Amino acid sequence: MQEPKVVIAPSILSADFGAMREAVLALHDGGADWIHFDVMDGHFVPNLTFGAPMVAALRPHCNLPFDVHLMIEHPERLIPDFAAAGANGITVHAEACVHLHRVIQQIRELGCSVGVALNPHTPLEIVRHILPAIDLLLIMTVNPGFGGQAFIELMKPKIVEARLIIERSAPHVLLQVDGGVSPENARELTELGAHVLVAGSSVFSAPTPQEGVRALRFALMSQKA
Ligand code: DX5
Ligand code: ZN
Q1: How far, CA to CA in Å, does 138 sit from each of 6, 9, 80, 128, 197?
Q2: Average pLDDT over every residue of 182-196
Q3: CA of 1 to the centre of ligand 1 (A)
Q4: H or E element in which residue 103 lies
Q5: Is 26 exposed, middle or buried (0-12, 13-18, 19+ CB in 10 A)?
Q6: Ligand 1 proximal residues by C-beta, below 6 Å
Q7: Which of 163, 144, 164 is CA-nearest to residue 69?
Q8: Whether 88 contacts 64, CB under 8 Å
Q9: Alpha-carbon torsion angle 8, 52, 71, 22, nearest 10
Q10: How does the average pLDDT of the chain come out, rounded?
């Protein structure tokens, strides 16, 4: 039986911000499935990146799904802007939402896929009651805020546990792993249960972004048992 295809969602956080259009075109050319936008506000995380205008600027140049990861406080204030800018999926951090179910409804009503992200320390229990209402669960495998950090090995059991919970109670939910993903660990992460892999520095540290994406795809295929 054909194995379900693993989704590769490169993060543009590690791209050259002075040539973002070219970076996205190269990712598309290299076979990326989604484009991952790491939005940071300097409050929820100690870094500041870009807002909805970046999504809007790139939307006309790429028809891949735009996977927007909001590492911001009060995401409900900006979700409409990202939906209007052309986001296909919007992921909020459970830790940033006092009324998470209301934010899930807000994203859904705007016609976007709904994701919830958990920081490394946050237990899976926090999403138990709302898991059936979302489309994607993002397990952070680094502390959010920066690219190029080392994968937190402690998160591997969490990935396994998350996939079991999804299979048991919300099998439609995609499990996304984000942070420290590379060709060296990609295959293992999918065997642990990841459906979607986010990678930034491992893609943009390759000679070209195309080669970075292809290295991930090859790693997913070549180490088949
Ligand atoms: C970190 C971001 C990640 C990060 C991934 O806060 O959410 O998407 O950019 O970058 P790498 O692959 O370099 O860890
Ligand atoms: Zn991210």
Answers
A1: 15, 12, 21, 14, 10
A2: 98
A3: 32
A4: helix 100-109
A5: buried
A6: 11, 13-14, 36, 38, 69, 71, 142, 144-145, 147-149, 178-181, 198-202
A7: 144
A8: no
A9: 40
A10: 97
